[in-house]
Design brief:
Blueprint (H helix, E strand, L loop, with lengths): L39 E10 L4 H11 L3 E9 L5 E10 L1 H13 L3 E6 L5 E12 L5 H10 L3 E5 L3 E8 L1 H11 L4 E6 L3 E4 L12
Antiparallel strand pairs: 1-3, 1-4, 2-3, 5-7, 5-8, 5-9, 6-7
């Protein structure tokens, strides 16, 4: 039996076999995986019920997802039974988006909003205990005045200064007084509020 030249050496298709269908469209591009993108700083606001254990659940979720939390500020709101958390952390966009969704599913979490790309007012407070002597005390006080800080305590060998402002301004002040010697330093971490009339607290559904 002679092979059909048109078959190019391939076995003839079985009688009645259905032709192979071509794909109707190309497969969609793969979705970015958490942790695979560029890491940058993000800011989240969470409104939570003021109950024991809420802070632990929030921090445990972030720890489980290997986030490095820069700061976590917790404060009361105008409502007596709710608190507000401001969380700053580093991570890629996809990972932070998924973490925010999981955060919202936690018990006693009422609202979560990421404000990384929104216009906000961001402030931080720091208390700095600076080593002082008779020789440099006036110089330190002048620096505090120029930085719009406030002296809250004076001692024979130390000055406690309160400074508020954006994180970059607090960083700058701390760097300047480090040359005199810092005995103690405590910072609240950033607290933020969206500019304009929108309010995350008014948006909470109870």
């Amino acid at each position: 039996m002679t092979a059909d030249p048109a078959s190019n050496g391939r076995a003839p298709a079985a009688a009645g076999a259905a032709p192979v269908a071509e794909p109707a469209h190309a497969a969609p591009p793969a979705r970015a995986l958490p942790g695979g993108g560029e890491t940058r700083r993000h800011t989240l606001i969470a409104i939570v019920l003021d109950k024991p254990g809420v802070l632990n659940r929030v921090s445990s979720l972030m720890r489980a997802r290997n986030f490095n939390i820069d700061s976590l500020a917790v404060s009361r709101t105008d409502q007596p039974d709710t608190s507000r958390m401001t969380i700053t952390l580093h991570g890629d966009d996809v990972a932070v988006e998924q973490a925010a969704k999981q955060l919202y599913r936690l018990i006693d979490v009422l609202k979560v909003q990421e404000v990384t790309n929104e216009p906000v007012v961001a402030q931080e407070l720091a208390l700095v205990k600076i080593r002082a002597t008779d020789a440099n005390r006036s110089e330190i006080l002048k620096l505090v005045e120029l930085s719009k800080g406030r002296v809250v305590d004076l001692a024979a060998d130390a000055v406690i200064v309160e400074v508020t402002g954006p994180e970059s301004e607090v960083d700058q002040f701390v760097a300047l007084v480090r040359t005199y010697g810092i005995k103690e330093l405590v910072r609240t971490g950033s607290v933020v509020m969206s500019r304009g009339s929108n309010s995350i607290e008014e948006a909470v559904k109870r």
